[in-house]
Amino acid sequence: MKMYTGRGDRGQTDLLGERVGKDDPRIDLLGELDETTSAIGLGRAHAQDARTQNALLTVQRDLYQIMAELAFTDATRPDAFQLPAGRVAWLEEQTDAIAATVTLPREFVVPGDTVPGAALDVARTVARRAERVAVHLDQHGRMPNPEILRYLNRLSSLLFILARAEDIAITGGPTLAKNVQGG
C-alpha cells in the first residue's frame, strides 16, 4: 500500500465533499487540531496519573470528532458528526474536579518542573493557537458549530490544571519554579 497519492502536489486537498487549497482556513484549523491532539498525546504518554491519562484520551477522541465535523462540507455533514454541547459540560466537570484537588501557587507558574507538566503546558499553548484559528474561521462565517469554539476555550483550562496536578503528583508541592530567583 502506498502512503502517498500525489494528489496534493499542486497545493490542493480534499474535504469531504469538496476539493480545496491547502491554504484554506478549514485545512489550517484541521492542521492545528492535529498538532493539538499530538501534543496532548505526548502529555498523555508522560502522565503519571491514570485520571490524567483517561481525561486526555477522551479529549483526543473529542478532537477527532471535531476534526471529522470540520472535514465535511456543510452540504455533506451527517448530524452524527456534530460535537454535542454535553462535551463542553464534561470538560468543565473534569476541570472543576481536578482543580478541587490542586493548590495553585500564588505566583505565575513557570512550566518545566516535571516532564508531564511541561508536555501538558506545551499542549495547552498549541490548543490556544488552534482556538485562535477557530475564532478566525468563525469570524468569517465558516464555523459550522459554536460548540467547537466553546470546547477549545475550555480545553486550555483543563490542560493547565492537569499539568499542575502532574507537577504536584511528582514533586509533592505546587511548583519548584517559585523558588527560582530572577537575575
How many β-strand runs? 2
CATH topology: Hypothetical Protein Ta1238, Chain: A
Q: In terms of per-residue confidence, which ranges show pLDDT below 50 for 5 or more consecutive residues?
A: 176-183
Q: What profile does the largest beta sheet have?
A: 2 strands, antiparallel
The chain-level mean pLDDT equals 88
Distance between the termini: 57 Å
Account of the protein in words:
The chain has 183 residues and is mainly α. The chain has one domain: Cobalamin adenosyltransferase-like (Hypothetical Protein Ta1238, Chain: A, Up-down Bundle), CATH 1.20.1200.10. The chain has five helices and two strands, in the order E-E-H-H-H-H-H. It has helices spanning 25-46, 50-71, 86-99, 115-139, 146-171; strands at 12-15, 18-21. The chain has a two-stranded antiparallel ribbon. Helix 1 (25-46) packs antiparallel against helix 2, helix 1 (25-46) packs antiparallel against helix 4 and helix 4 runs antiparallel to helix 5 (146-171). It is elongated and about 50 Å long.
Q: Mind sketching the topology for me?
A:
Blueprint: E1 12-15, E2 18-21, H1 25-46, H2 50-71, H3 86-99, H4 115-139, H5 146-171
Antiparallel strand pairs: 1-2
Quickly list its features.
single chain, 183 residues, mainly alpha, Hypothetical Protein Ta1238, Chain: A, two-stranded antiparallel sheet, 5 helices, 60% helix, disordered C terminus
Short description:
The protein is mainly alpha-helical. It contains five helices and two strands.
